Amino acid sequence: MTEDDSGTLPAGEVSRIELRGVYYAYRTGTGHLPVLDGLTFACGTGSFTAVVGPSGCGKSTLTRLIAGLMLPDRGEVLLHGEPVRSPRATVGMAFQNPVLLEWRTILANVLLPLEIVPNRLTREERRNRARELLALVGLGAFEDRRPSELSGGMRQRASLCRALVTRPEVLILDEPFGALDAFTREDLWQTMHALRREERFTCLLITHDLRESVFLADRVVVLSDRPATAQVTMEVPLGDKRALDDLYGTEASELQAELRQQIRIAQQARQTEPAA
Questions:
Q1: Which CATH number fits domain 1-90+168-181+188-276: 3.30.450.40, 3.40.50.300, 1.10.3210.10, 3.30.390.60?
Q2: Where would I find the H helices in the chain?
Q3: pTM for the complete prediction?
Q4: pLDDT tens digits, 68-77
């Protein structure tokens, strides 16, 4: 287990996502509320980075900036070296709420991005692509079902397929497993590993679950309290092939303990702030 607070990548690793001194503040009735302040870190091409931190520290704001849904007040957000100024077709997103359309079948829901994003695929190629993903996550037999006919975990699998159907370079996951029960969540963690083996993408995961961050990610970035900076970055010592039992090994347990301590440090900073 290694850690640093520089936000830089190992020598020779090319960044797909990079934040340079990002500052963002929300406008409120009483003035500006700074959320991110000088946030700097990078995600290497093909990497899986998890971001954790205290509640309300700006994790979801971070995803909107990377997706181009908002622009930083200062600093830069870059994808493959190019500043992000607007939403891009090369970025896929999945959220805690799958937001599937009830009047469309599961197959039609997965196909939706291909109907919106310009592409040269034929109708049959689009359907084959969607079916390929549904089969990969175990939903091949459910393509004609409506969202209400599926369990929460199955709907989230469909949401992941929808996010990946355009073959995005970057996949942003904003707490997609947070509302699921523990067993379903762990099942979907393993699904994510299967998707990563079959699909090539750089992933940024926002999560409150430290076990989830350790099981899924190559690196974990801990954000400080608001306005957030990158408090520390830790490398995950597990290999590419992971089993749930690995979470109870010495290295994973020590990493979870250190991450928990870093979250406490961030929370204590909030508690010791002088009253306004």
A1: 3.40.50.300
A2: 59-66, 106-116, 123-136, 152-164, 182-198, 210-216, 250-271
A3: 0.89
A4: 999 999 999 9
